[in-house]
Amino acid sequence: MGRGESGQTSAQAGGAPPALLDLTIDNITPNTIRINSQSDNARLTYLMARLVTHLHDFARETRLSTAEWMAAIEFLISCGKICSDVRNEFILLSDVLGLSLLVDNINHPKPPGGTEGSVLGPFHTHDAPVLPNGASMTSDPAGEPMLAVCTVKDTQGRPIPGVTIDIWETDSSGHYDVQHADRDGPSERCVMVSDEQGRFWFRGIKPVSYPIPHDGPVGKLLQMLNRHCWRPAHVHFMFAKEGWDRLIT
Hints:
Elements: H1 28-35, H2 42-62, H3 66-82, H4 89-96, H5 99-107, E1 145-151, E2 164-168, E3 189-193, E4 199-205, E5 210-211, H6 217-224, E6 230-231, E7 236-240, E8 247-248
Antiparallel strand pairs: 1-4, 2-3, 2-7, 5-6, 7-8
Helix pairs in contact: 1-2
């Protein structure tokens, strides 16, 4: 692909874009990749080429119908419409498709003996209060009281001090604080820092099982797939320290 003296592609420098052939089922993929390959961003060009390749192969392999293609478009539109500042249906979709965990495993491979990672999920926020060890992060009087005593260690069993730990869970009804319309601040979440012995401890409530949001298009997809929408009881932890790989579990 020709470039002008400025380093731009010929199309960016005012030249003609790559010539295209009459498009057919067989040649539309290389032609689409060709017309999309005029950027100076090599990574973007590569990602777009692979995306187009796999999307086109999927359509050819499944003999995708116009009605099915349109249903997928409408599904994505519905996902966008239900998104808000505190709800991301696309993250939920990514989780259901197994993509979130796959990307995390690719970007954060764990050494032998390391704690396995999990997805961030759609309900993490950035407004959790920083609390001292022993403090309570719950305001739910209906929940069963829980004391969590934890230690952060490396794979050799040595305590790690100064780790920032982001912690969040649902209330006793199985809802995160951001799911309540009358939310006036964070609840059932906090940030702590491990002490010199790598310890941190906090008071919360015993976690309960809860359904993922199933009132939207992703929930309807689960129904069509005959999948249930329940998650086992759990507490989210995200560990971060400069020089160490982040862990979400």
